[in-house]
Amino acid sequence: MKGNLILSTFVVCLLVGLGGFAESGTPSASVNGAVAHPELVVSTQWLADHLSDPNLVIVYIGHDEGDYRAAHIPGSRYLAMDKFATDHMTKPGTELLPADQLKKNLEAIGIGDDSRVVYYAPDWDPMATRLFFTMDYLGHGNQAALLDGGLDQWVREKRPTSTETSTGKPGSLTIHLHPEIVAKMDYMKKLVDHPERDIVILDSRPSKRYRRGHLRGAESLYWENALVSEKEPLLKSPEQLRQLFSAATVTGNKKVVSYCEVGLQASYVYMLARYLGFDAEMYDGSYSEWSDAKQPVVRGDSP
After folding, report:
1. Domains of the chain in sequence order
2. Under a CB-based contact definition with an 8 Å cutoff, are residues 59 and 76 in contact?
3. How many Cβ atoms from other residues are within 10 Å of residue 137's Cβ?
4. What is the pLDDT of residue 21?
5. Local structure of residue 146 (DSSP, 8 states)
6. Exposure of 225 in the CB half-sphere (CA atoms within 13 A)
7. In 3D, which of 42, 52, 41 has the Cα closest to residue 75?
8. What b/e readout covers 148-179, taking b as 16+ CB neighbours within 10 angstroms?
């Protein structure tokens, strides 16, 4: 009995220490344990309830700081895409910046070892999940959560927005690199030439792009199919998400390697895989690098 009491106390303390992230507030995030990492997604209600948390860092990701100044969730800090990813217009793919540069840029907006990061991108959700992939690479992925529905959902619920710029005090981030989550072209060549039964390549682009050309053996799983609808951009239930992955032959202990055009849409599928508990990697150079290197592709609806 005493042992049970001690264990219960430990669990409560652990949840408190996580700043509430283990309870996302998203109804779909705790259905019979169907989600392995519910802390990777939070609802607008959760965020509204935790706006004053001292360790919370809310990140608005975009290309235009003017849009951020026009309206954002109170306390949000602006982070431009080029602060954590290369510009795919200058080289194939959208790739990670050097680790020391990533550390500096994230610390500049207040992200540190004790931060609880909630991120959103009004322009396009995959821009947001690219930050999650980056933080996972740096060893802090479990501290970062996607805001389910983003700014659209926040505004739809008539919650307050702000025009005040917020930066916060600089953070101190200890880096623990995980290069194993970053798939390179040589690895993808081997995987395409010699498929492994426990690894599934997922093409995260729309089906029309998949049909025009994809890596041999890749299954199609368009990231946007994970949302309820275009007008209601909330995540589907865990059961529905698992059905999407199952339809793409991702079941059991299989590993996921996602790719897209330039490494953005793939980051959303990468996040979903982690959310559901699958081991995951992302091909950072993606189809842009693959096709520029004149690698063979398959056309049509079949892997």
Report:
1. 20-156 (3.40.250.10), 179-292 (3.40.250.10)
2. yes
3. 23
4. 52
5. E
6. 18
7. 52
8. bbbbbbbbeeebeeeeeebebeebebeeeeee
Rounded to whole angstroms, the Cα distance separating 228 from 266 reads 19
CA atoms within 13 A on the CB side of 28: 21
Structure tokens at 25: 């507030």
Distance of CA 84 to the CA centre of its chain: 13
Whole-number Cα distances in Å, 30 to 121, 238, 253, 273: 24, 8, 20, 16
- CA-wise closest residue to 190 among 270, 283, 127, 274: 283
Name the residue among 50, 40, 66 with its Cα closest to residue 272. Answer: 40
DSSP conformation letters of 162-176: B---B--S-------
Chain Cα centroid distance, residue 126: 7
Cβ atoms of 157 and 127 within 8 Å: the answer is no
Closest residue by Cα to residue 257 from 177, 179, 187: 187
Separation CA 62–CA 303 (nearest Å): 34
DSSP state of 218: P
The C-alpha atoms of residue 213 and residue 50 are separated, in whole angstroms, by 45
Q: pTM of the entire structure? A: 0.88
| Closest among 255, 251, 249, 221 to 236, alpha carbons compared | 221
Taking the alpha carbons at both ends of the chain, their separation in whole angstroms is 55
Q: Which residues pair with 12 in a beta bridge?
A: none
pLDDT by residue (tens digit) across 44-80?
Answer: 999 999 999 999 999 999 999 999 999 999 999 999 9
pLDDT in tens, 146-181: 999 999 999 999 999 999 998 889 999 999 999 999
Token pair, residue 68, equals 């951020």
The secondary structure element, H or E, covering residue 240 is helix 238-247
d(CA 200, CA 254): 7
Name which of 60, 97, 56, 103 is nearest 79 in CA terms. 60
